[in-house]
Write the structure tokens for this entry.
Amino acid sequence: MRDVAMSAKREELEWADRLRLALFAPAHMGANVIGLMQMGSGFVKWGGVAQAIAIAKFPVLRDLQPESTYLKGLLAEAKEIGVHSTTKARFVAHADGDWVVLQDAFFRDPPPLPYVGTDHVGCCKPKRGVFELPLKDIAAVLT
């Protein structure tokens, strides 16, 4: 999402200045690629072999590895643009039980909002009547 936003800024699209990034468990500092595969398909076996197979089958996962060329480029681009609505999120939320994405701060983002008692899926996919905090946080950004 941030990459698309910064591309709009680089291309001087007028709507880029009106963007407000609200990010839930973003992988902008890297992710546990095997964890993502496990969540997406029940893919659980073989450790390093599984990672190699996953990356071969889905090369985009290479971009999510910590310190990847893609993520380094994303950070460099943010620094080049400077503080802007496309580079600095309004808020970032992470689940305290998240073992999928790295929770380090990106560029000038504010400290992450902790979602206590939930995991990656719960943070990204709130359920009405069960866990609605993400919906309230989005509403606060939009007002």
Observations:
- The two ends are 20 Å apart (CA to CA).
- Residues 38 and 45 are 9 Å apart (CA to CA).
- Helices lie at 2-10, 33-41, 47-57, 69-81, 120-124, 133-142.
